[in-house]
Amino acid sequence: MDTAADMSAYGVMSKTDMARIRALCEVPPAYTPERVVAIRTTIVKASQAVFATMLNVSVSTVQKWESPAANKHPSGTSAKLLQMVEAKGVEALLV
């Protein structure tokens, strides 16, 4: 991020590109079990198995994310993918 900021400051990188880099570096929000279920059922409209495949995680992981008792939450890449799905829809995962 520092290198990009320096490049932007010296005019080597456009402000638009810098804004895109900043957006990519945003820390994803915290995901509660209810929020994960809502994303899966209302945005993606998929079963836990299909949702797990789309996020490249196990079905067990999705089940734990959706269970308040499990106290397991999406983090890292998984949280970033969920953030993208919330912002752009399931199409963000389809390449």
**Helix fraction by DSSP (H/I, runs of at least 4):** 55-70%
Calculate the terminal CA-CA distance, rounded to whole Å: 26 Å
How many domain modules?
2
Summarize the biggest pleated sheet.
none
Helix tally? 6
Order of SSEs, N→C?
A: HHHHHH
Average pLDDT taken over every residue: 91
The share of residues in extended strands comes to: under 5%
The gyration radius over C-alpha positions equals: 16 Å
Q: Give unreliable regions as ranges.
A: none
Tell me how many strands there are. Answer: 0
Structural class: mainly alpha
Shape: elongated
What does this structure look like?
Helices cover 62% and strands 0% of the residues. By secondary structure, it is an all-alpha fold. Helix 3 (33-44) crosses helix 5 (59-66) and helix 4 (48-55) crosses helix 5 (59-66). The longest helix is centred in the last third of the chain and has 13 residues, at 76-88. The two termini are 26 Å apart.
Provide a compact summary of the structure:
The chain has 95 residues and is mainly α. Helices cover 62% and strands 0% of the residues.
Observed structural traits:
95 residues, mainly alpha, 2 domains, 6 helices
SSE blueprint and pairings:
Elements: H1 2-9, H2 15-24, H3 33-44, H4 48-55, H5 59-66, H6 76-88
